[in-house]
Write a structure and sequence with these properties.
Layout lengths: L8 H9 L5 H10 L2 H15 L17 E15 L7 E6 L14 E3 L19 E2 L2 E2 L6 H5 L5 E9 L15 E3 L4 E5 L2 E6 L2 E11 L6 E4 L3 E10 L3 E10 L4 E6 L6 E10 L16 E13 L8 E8 L3 H5 L14 H4 L6 E4 L4 E4 L23 E8 L9 E17 L14 H12 L4 E2 L4 H21 L1 H11 L5
Antiparallel strand pairs: 1-21, 2-3, 2-20, 4-5, 6-7, 6-15, 8-9, 9-14, 10-13, 10-15, 11-14, 12-13, 16-19, 16-21, 17-18, 17-20, 19-22
Amino acid sequence: MMPKDPRNKFAVEEVTNSMVVPRNEQDRVGRLLSAQHNDFVASYLATLINPKSHMSRVPDSYARPTALVRSISTYDIPVFIDGTVDSGRFSAAIQPTMGGISAPINFKVGLVKGNTTWPTDFSNSGNYTTTLNGRDVRLDQFYGQLTQPYTGSCGADAVSISPNPPFGAAGAFALGFGYNLSPVYSVAGNYSRFTLSPGLYYLEVFMNATGTLVQSINFSSEINLVNEFNFTTPTTVNLSWYLVVNSNGQYFEINNVGSAGNVQTQMFLTRAVNDSLDAPQDYGDMKEYRPVGMSVLATYVGPTLTDGGNIAVAYVPGNTLATQFYSSGSVSQGLLQNWENLSLLPGSYNGKLKEGAYAWWAPESNVDVEMNYPSSWEARAPPAIIVSGAYAPGTFSGTGYSQTIVRLEVVTVYEFTTNSQLYEVSKYIGSQHIFDTVNKIASAEPHCMANAQHNSFIGRVLKGVGNAAKWVWNNRDAIGRVGQAAMPLLL
């Protein structure tokens, strides 16, 4: 008979211990299972709920060697105090991705601007913070290192007589200087042509003639061009651009046909980062990746004597950001930038601002842990974490002012494939069964809580994994569905 209280660990053990398991079946289970499976169950669950202290691969059947990286970013969030109904509000949506800047829905951290009047159109990228603490919050701190080609620069200086190619014949050309960047040089008619690999570049061209200067600079069709500087005289030009090169085989070319006298030509090229240009993401060390775990810790850092206000945090399903966060106008269920609406979501936490908040991320399904190219994650809609609140210091008078109130710590563990030898890679072949085992345990645990509760929560769950969960895992074939269903209740 099934115990009346399925949360009683000993009652469940009594039922399962009363089962008659053939000795040969026990031996078979013992041969098939090992302590390694237990370790991966515990390690993966630990990474889910506490990625700052643990790193694990996703224990599914993905069979390629992978590397791990842990990203920890801290942001001091300001609020704007102006005495209005939205005074002191703050809100951030955090995704378990490397991020992007092409649209708000791709941001790693979508932080509503808190140094001015609270906005109303949350679909407008201009209403979100770009840089905080010297870092672009829309991108993971390892975005440049992992998704972009290595940094480098090069340059060349030549004197030619029109109509010859400015930098001479292909076989005679050599860069004047260069570090880790060497475009392919060729000659096309009277043009000096430089072919580039994909990436974001800054190009500067200087030309000066002893007589009248005639110059022509062309770019291939798949280079997105942003003009930065343009200075011309009858004998001199100084031009510069940002070049977004999205595919192989793209080039720029220069000639000076029609110029009078000798022409001095200088070219300077460097890989670049620009917070307004969305660079190609698939040409760095990270070939494909998936999130393993992510946590968000919000800590109150405002004045102790005026620490009034509220905070809410929620782990939200995929597509929630598109419908209830990065949206404009009214939403039937309410915009989640308002903590009052966020606190109504199932499983959310809300409390006093001074007590802070903690939340941890987990995949909803196998789709959320599928390996994808960095650029492909922009089309995905994984679960996310939202933190919203309002600071209420008391009576307001005078002009509005901005003040730092909350420190947000975002920790993300990524698993990725790479061809670089800079990273330690290893392979673990798990199974859907192991992956599901962890999700069964995690499904019974709260994702959101007060700051002060998260350390004891982590300790309780990991201790449970070390005892009851391992017992169920080791006996899963013998106890069948009864024990596995009770697994989350044993913690």
